[in-house]
Amino acid sequence: MMSILARAPKNSWQPVMTADTTISSYWLNWRFLLCCIWVLASMVFAAVLIIKYEGPRIRKNGSNENKKESPGLLYQDEVWRPCLKTIHPAWLLAFRVFAFMILLLLLILNVTVDGGEIFYYYTQWTFTLITIYFAIGSVLSMYGCYKCHNKVGIDGTDVERLDIEYGSQSSVAAKHIGENVEQTSRQIAEFWEYFFQIIFQMNAGAVTLTDCVFWFILVPYLTIKGYKLNFWIINMHSVNVVFLLGDTAMNCLRFPWFRIGYFFMWTGIYVIFQWAVHACISIWWPYPFLDLSSAFSPLWYLLVAFMHIPCYGIFVLVIKLKHHLFSKWFPQSYRCAR
Fold this sequence. Notes:
Blueprint: E1 5-6, H1 24-27, H2 30-53, E2 58-60, E3 67-69, H3 89-114, H4 122-150, H5 157-166, H6 171-185, H7 191-224, E4 228-229, H8 231-236, H9 239-250, H10 260-280, H11 297-329
């Protein structure tokens, strides 16, 4: 973001240093204490959510037959299957590979232009995370396409075989049996599938947060100050959400609320990283609201923490809108878990 934000006739932009961040008085005060409480409280809250709900635990309601899936449950095929039965997994694979290549190219070019200092910014952390998401997604989709090509037709071949065995007049029953076989044969996700799902939900919140903060807070501020936006900065804050929404429209991933905890953890780790860097080196803050020298810094930190909830909630609404529209438009083909 350094040379990307350009002010004519200058070629680069850099925030102004307001205080020496390496001296003890910068940290040993009530402002930092309150900010530290906000950050640590949000991370503790996140840890409680993750410990309570994460994982493929099966909950029982009364009798042994009445079992309920836990919010953290994920099946292996949900990471590579499209949400519509009529779409072959190869299409989702092609989209993920294309998205990964474009995002990786933009990230490399950005590092080449601005250097490693771009990783001081939360935007670049999130952009790197979504690039990793599509890299892992491409590999998982390749594995899914391989399984889809070599399996004994869970979606079609088994039904056809059962139809032959039971007779054409029992095709409906054969199809029902085939669906039951598919359901019982599904495997619970393992580490990489869960890791992929977690990154998906972290990206959902982080991308929304970065783009909202940039377009609704930083852009008006920079416009008033006379700074210009060029091709690079616009792309870094638009292409990420375009690819993420495209993948969301096609994928079969679940979106439980409790994984907002990982989103809080992600931001908390970034803030602690910034504190550690500034305690050792006196440099500018990448975002003005992170500066602890201001008397309003505790308020800024608290507001940004609360912004996580609506930003994550926006994506929850996107998922609900997808479920509503696709189940209405494609009732026989849509298969996402709600």
